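Hey, I'm writing a tutorial for new members on how sequence and structure tokens pair up, and I'd like a real worked example in the thread rather than a made-up one. If someone can provide the structure for the chain below, I'll link this post from the tutorial.
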Amino acid sequence: MQKFLFILLGLLSHNVFSQNYSQYVNPFIGTGGHGHTFPGAIVPFGMVQLSPDTRIDGSWDGCSGYHYSDSVIYGFSHTHLNGTGVSDYGDIMLMPTMGIAQLNPKEYSSEFSHKNEKASAGFYSVKLDKHNIDVRLTATKRVGYHEYTFNKAGVANIILDLNHRDKLLEGEVRIINDKTIEVFRRSEAWATNQYIYARIEFSKPMKIVSTIANGTQKNNFYSGTQLALAFSSKVKKGEKILVKVGLSPTDYDGAAKNFLAEGKSNNFNEIQNKAVADWNKELSKIEVKSDEKNKLAIFYTAMYHVFTQPNINMDVDGKYRGRDNKFYYAKDFNYYSVFSLWDTFRAAHPLMTLIDRKRTADFINTFIKQREQGGRIPVWELASNETECMIGYHGVSVIADAMAKGITGFDYEKAYEAAKNSAMQDIFGLDAYKQKNYISIDDEHESVSKTLEYAYDDWCIAQMAKILGKKEDYQYFMKRSQNWKNLYNPNNGFMQARKNGNWYEPFDPREVNNNYTEGNSWHYSYFVPQDIPGLIEAHGGKEKFEQFIDGIFSAPDKTTGREQVDITGLIGQYAQGNEPSHHIAYLYNYVDKPEKTNEKIKYILDNFYKNSPDGLIGNEDCGQMSAWYILSAMGIYAVTPGLPEWQTTTPYFDEIKIHLEDGTTKTITKNTSKNELKYLGFENVKAFKDLKYPQQTASPIIAADRLFDFTSQVKITPLNEKDKIYYMTRDEDDKTSKDKSFKSYKNPFTISKTTQVYAYAERNGEKSGITTSNFNKRPNHWDVTINANVHPQYTAGGKLAIIDGINGDVNWRKGEWQGYQGQTFEAVIDLLSPQQISHISSTYLQDSRAWILMPKKVEYYASMDGKTFILLKNVENNIDPKDEKVQIKDFSTDILPTEAQFIKVKAYHYGKLPEWHQGAGGEAYIFVDEISVK
């Protein structure tokens, strides 16, 4: 009987995998608009992404190397990123041409037409119009296969350009024989130190006919930071040349081993069929039924995009390059790269816990190794480089979700230690977050988003601690997970930034600024996935919270403040095109209004996903945009990864079958009960009882004039009216006093000196973090007139900021600098009476990547009447605009003693950004802070 069951299961499995789900995949979805996908040949989670490149300019919509609006192909490279917002990859680029070999991209590129272009799962083809060459591409995990058909007789060339797309730090080409070469490329882009090796084999002998190499050129070896070669051979009309390229992240031997394992075949169609079979195996994990071909294409292309990454990043023998750039061997797991965790923790990884538990464990084992070899679990890891892109430490969400769902295959204790380690760092505002339970503008940019996302991550760590029986850690991280309460403004219901102990004003929830990550307060005021009941209570109950959810969908659909290209797919202020909004429609379930969840989700599924190149409403973001579609179409979504349950909506398809790794099948129809959907796939997971933990008391608000002339009134307000407030002040008379202590706050009080005010709240014996505020008596009573238009995002609080004695630091996003774009900065300071002047200075900041450059020069003038000025000194800039270090320069000068009442400062802006800059043609900024006159 048992043997019969095994045979039956095998037949069922074969039947499922043999179905052709790959026929529905349309790799062109997302290649237009702002989807940032690519159409080339890949297999699931493969190291090779062999695809055409139509963009080499680093433009935002060219992040993947390809955009559907283009008509020129520069070549076919072997690595690509799927839907990211930053450009990288495009390694080992080959391009077939004919005639005289050219090594200039403008010369070797070719026009093409979409009518002669095809893409499907594991396959891509195109006709290059310039020389009438047909190109077909397919791939295995580690080997890319090219087939070039030359439709004219003559001299065929294959161009290898190692300077393609990003900056070449080191390049090598070794000629093994007339059919085989080895290539090394070390490059810098988003990943600042990427290594890749390749073994390339041509199907016929090729001769080197042209080279660019600014290093070595001898004994069949070429090297340099400028490196390109052309390989040529005569061909007959219709002749084909097959090129196979094996990749390795480790060394030449790794590339050779990978080539030997996966590059033996010379049968292109055989490899293509194997790629299709690999795709059908993965795609068959979820079967959906529909009579609408477009819906099937959208669904299975979504799965295709989810399975594009993370990418296997080890050789066939398990050897990989660690985060410390040393070599290791993966034992009993596969090592991966490309972890866009700020995006994918929300839906892509929860989806994987349902349909691929083994690979989920591999991801976590990779995290553990990256912690051991690189210091922390990944934030946004790319090719063994930590890019530090985005915020949070969301690898802990992936780990907690896996542990909560009973996934095994990794060491729970090591995973917990790695997670806890990330939370105990003193970087990116975490030092302030741990000390005072929130991050303010004064501490770190994107302070609201970081506080909220750290709090969720801390809850995830607490869930791990609970599973492992670590009571004290559980209590500590559960208390930290309530840090969101310090940024919840009970007066308006929004998550609002704090500066100098007070709420940051003026406040507009639609404003996109440096207090939020790729969003605004509307997008982030719902991000408390770890404590939605607590958020509802803070709003005053379910009815009021329902109204608040209604508010984001009915608000005007225009953002204010900074232009943010990521914010797309707007329904009011809800933005389906970027991740912070993705869970919001499901929050109606928590206020007993599932019909509103159903309505919003169906609208998004119907309108924001299409079977066309512009079929994604925003960046694909390494599968997150598609994972949202897959889960929502099945009627489920993980609002809180780390809980073994789903929020639910009405399934989008009539019937959905999910084939799980244990051999069981779950069937979903539109009649499947909410309770069945809620625990789908995790019905038998062990539950762990919640432990008691301390409730957090929110830190009070301290309000006063940050800069005052003579006196200022200080008012301290608790965020919960039941809290008691205690405070302490310290001014210049108290600097040596050690007997100051906190006292009970009763009423507002007045200060007349530069003063620090400290305050905390207490409720039921639980003290809040200490709020600290600095109030400065003006160091002078000068006036200033600024003859330039300050950028509304960078006002630093007003014109007096440049003469207030408060200096900004290198983190300009904290708001202490004034910014002026595309104009010369001019300020006239009125000293109110004639003064003897001997020294003048003004301070500027440069962050070249952010378009902020030093002024070309600064001129200082003096006047007695404010009308007629004489030039005192001209100070030239000596900082290279190409220097990407964020730095501050004081343009100071001594002058001969001069009597004047008015001082003019004139800083000449750089002008338009030059061709070498990624923002070429845009207007540079001047950032200025303190002007000093002695």
